[in-house]
Design brief:
Layout lengths: L1 H8 L3 E6 L4 H9 L4 H7 L3 E6 L6 H12 L6 E5 L5 E6 L5 H10 L3
Parallel strand pairs: 1-2
Antiparallel strand pairs: 1-3, 3-4
Amino acid sequence: EGMAMSQKSQKPVFIDFTGYTCTNCRWMEMNVFEDPEVIDLFEQYTLIRLYTDGGKNARKYQQMEVERFGTAALPYYVLLTYDNKEISRFAGMDPDVNKFVNFLKKGLS
């Protein structure tokens, strides 16, 4: 569904592999995702959040993360073009907002 929206808008995709029980995921959401520059950059993306530890599609999302990206780590962030080509990856929690901003900018260049 998110990829179809991205194709329609031709915006790149930000995939957030997350989990209900992931403390580092919540930390990133509360401390990095709330940064004004990150919020502005997110508006230029189609945002997709995939929970890999619960919900009806958890196994499917976890399997996709492992098969396509070679990890089951959380949090794990991936940028894709609107036609599903990988641009970049950002693994784990990092308190350096500038690193995350640069990651998002890379997907727009």
